[in-house]
Structure formats: C-alpha cells, structure tokens
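Re: How this chain folds, sequence and tokenised backbone to follow
How to read it: Take the token row as a discrete description of the fold.
Start of record: The labelled sequence and token lines come straight after this line.
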Amino acid sequence: MSDSKQHSKHHENGDHDHDHSHAHTDHSHWSDMHLKVKTLESLLVEKGYIDPAALDVIVETYETKVGPRNGAAVVARAWNDDAYLRRLRENATEAIAELGFSGRQGEHMKIVENTADTHNMVVCTLCSCYPWSVLGLPPVWYKSAPYRSRAVMEPRVVLSEFGLELPEEVRITVWDSTAEMRYLVIPQRPDGTQGWSEEALAEIVTRDSMIGTGLPLVRMESKA
C-alpha cells in the first residue's frame, strides 16, 4: 500500500494544518486481519516457504533487542550531550544513524521536545506509521482505531486514560506520523538526574514516553 499523506500536527483545540492526499484502507478490524495473517503464515510454513524459527528471531529482535532500547539511547545521549541534541534538531535521521540505528521505518525522522509548557504525543491517524528502528514493533493500542481518532480529538482525555494527568496550562500538540515523516518525542529530563551516565538515563526512558503517552520513570536511588 502506497502512503503519500503529508505530515501534520494537531493542537488540543482541534485545529488542523494539513491535507491528507488520499484515502487509506480502514484498519478497524485488526482481529480479522491477525487471523488472516496467522492462517497465511501457517500455510507458508506447511509448504516449506518460510522457517518459523527465523520468524521468531525477527520478532524477538524488534520486541526485545531493538524494542524501545534504541530510542532510549538516543534520548539519553540528547539529555547528556547538547551538541548531539542540536544535531537531532537539524537532522534527526542522520543523528540517530550516528548511534547505529537506521533502516526500515526509520528513514525520515524528526524529534519533538517536551518542555515545561508543551507536551507532544504521536499518532498515525490513518494507518500505523511508526519508527521501528528506534521503538521496535508498535503496540496494539497505537494501531487501534480509537487511539488514532481520539488522540487528535481529545488528547488530554486519552492521556488521562494512560494515567498521565497534565496541568491545564500545559499545551498538548499531537503529531501525525506518516511514511514521509516519523516522530520521536524527547521527554523532559527528570529532576535529580544530573550526573547520571547515559546507560542509567536510558533505563528510565520508556517506550510510552517517546510516543508521548507516558513519562520517564522516576527513581530515587543515585545513578551517578
């Protein structure tokens, strides 16, 4: 399926500044699609066209080895290295590739930074564009029709359902991910983490905090 919709952002007031250039397939029936995929997979295995062990390795790589660990390393470097953060702002794709993270679904990257008065969250309103190279496989809820529609229309309510209550004065900006542009949220660095190593910082960066539906973990122990 080709994807040529333009990247865009939506503010909490519901105003849009984009134009989607074509209609996409309705992905509301994920259960049916999952069943069809499993049936096809079983048939291909039975015919000897694919190796189930190889499939397991690929899935495990994206779920546990790639997962959000790559993105967490990017965030930790950005928190600790101002020069690297500037390079991310100028060309996120190239800066992320400096750490060895590139490839499928990560060819066109942009970072958006949370601040004291602005919170960013990412959605793909018409399909499920997602930066695999830094976040691994997308969670099921990211691909669901309710998240894709409600994240734009009522982002504050959606965030509260994730357990994230933001002060009313914090503005929420929703970024619409596309095949042409995928987003990585750089969450605010938690207080008390100055002097921490990049490895320690990466441990508190969650997948959801890089989508914008969560925050970094808060740990009281010293990580210096």
Observations:
- The chain has eleven helices and five strands.
- Residues 1-7, 13-30, 220-224 have pLDDT under 50 and may be disordered.
